[in-house]
Amino acid sequence: MKFKAIQIAEILEGVVFGDENVEVHKLSKIEEGEEGSLTFLSNPKYTQYIYTTKASIAIVNKDFVPESEIQTTLIKVPDAYKAFSKLLEFYNQAKLNKFGIETPSYIAQSAVVGENIYVGSFAYISNNVKIGDNVKIYPNVYIEDNVTIGDNTIIFAGAKIMSETVIGKNCIINAGCVIGADGFGFAPNEEGVYSKIPQIGNVVIEDNVDIGAATTIDRATLGSTIIRQGVKLDNQIQIGHNVEIGKNTVIAAQTGIAGSSKVGENCMFGGQVGIAGHLIIGNNVRIQAQSGIGRNIKDNEVIQGSPAFGYTDWNKSYVYFKNLPKLANKINDLEKELKAIKTNYE
User: Fold this and answer.
1) What average pLDDT score do residues 214-220 get?
2) Distance CA 305, CA 8 (A)
3) How far apart are CA 146 and CA 308, in angstroms?
4) In 3-state terms, what secondary structure has residue 286?
5) What is the phi/psi pair of residue 92, to 5°?
6) Three-state secondary structure readout of 301-325
């Protein structure tokens, strides 16, 4: 797709300084700009590059005044950063604006499909699936029986949506996700041999949820694993069976939440957090990266460590952690001095 400077200025409500008919077809960093690309300048640290960039168009703040000659066409706006962000969103929507059903793909006769959908090549949509309007299903997506997908949801390439899963409106399921696979349920017999416990529940994902690439969410043993509205999950996260994550919680990559734990609303977890099973994490909890949680956490706590404890206490303790070798040497020296004093006293 190509856009002229005048078209971009209209979208951003900006003013063109230079060739209003110059065209761009891609985006670039200002220091890496090349002909046919669009860039922006908002951070003063990068001002030097505006005079050397080969980008065809640059978005700048309206108060920007060049100190020497500039080759690129400028579009002046009130806030260059916000304008470029708006343009990124517009560009992304245009890029994802796919419609129609590609071949080869399979849609079961019993499936109910909404209007203006996109189904990519080699996608498989099984029996009794219900798909809303404006849904986009990219190539190699597998959707099993009795799945429901709400309006405007996007499922990227290679995702697997297993039976009975319910996905709300305006969700994004990124490439390689597995939603609704069996939970990790086994029971040992008297001989220590493990037998599988059937997992007959499902996964429910409410509206406006984003799920990162290669994340897995297990179906419940009974009932539902639930991801509430507005939750944002990073890549490579594992959510166990019967877990519930409260609305607007954000979780960074490689976090694992074991079965039947409940996470509250508006929480923020750093990367590689581990949460044991059957725990309750309160609302507005902050957990720092690589923390291990083995107890219930009250509302508004900020914690760190493995096993995790209060963030402020952890920071204070860290001063001693890193100085343990020095402290040990001091203790050894004090013991020697005390021994010498004791010997002299005797």
Assistant:
1) 98
2) 48
3) 41
4) strand
5) -65, -40
6) CEEEECCEEEHHHHHHHHHHHCCHH
Beta strands 302-305 and 308-310 are antiparallel
pLDDT digits (tens, 9 = 90+) for 31-42: 999 999 999 999
Residue tagged 């960039």 (tokens)? 53
At residue 231, the pLDDT reads 98
Whether pLDDT at 346 is above 70: no
State pTM to two decimals. Answer: 0.81
Q: In this model, does residue 343 exceed pLDDT 70?
A: yes
Tell me the DSSP string of 15-62. Answer: EEES-TT-EE-EE--GGG--TTEEEEE-SGGGGGGGGT---SEEEEET
Query: Burial, 289: exposed, middle or buried (Cβ in 10 Å; 0-12, 13-18, 19+)?
Result: middle
The residue type of 54 is: K
Amino acid making up residue 299: D
Those residues with Cβ within 8 angstroms of residue 282's Cβ, 6 or more apart along the chain or in another chain: 264, 296, 297, 298, 299, 300, 301
Between the CA of residue 138 and those of 16, 101, 109, 200, 337, what are the distances in Å?
37, 10, 20, 27, 74
Q: Which helix (H) or strand (E) holds 74?
A: strand 73-77
Active site residues: 241
- Render pLDDT for 105-138 as a digit per residue (tens, 0 to 9): 999 999 999 999 999 999 999 999 999 999 999 9
Are 298 and 282 in contact by the 8 Å Cβ rule? The answer is: yes
- Give rounded-to-5 percent helix, strand, coil for the chain: 20, 30, 50
Q: How far apart are CA 245 and CA 263, in angstroms?
A: 5
Strand order in the sheet with 202-205: 112-113, 130-131, 148-149, 166-167, 202-205, 224-227, 244-245, 262-263, 280-281
Residue 199's Cβ-count burial label (10 Å; 0-12, 13-18, 19+) is buried
- Exposure b/e, 241-260, CB count within 10 A at least 16 = b: bbbbbbbbbebbbbbebbbb
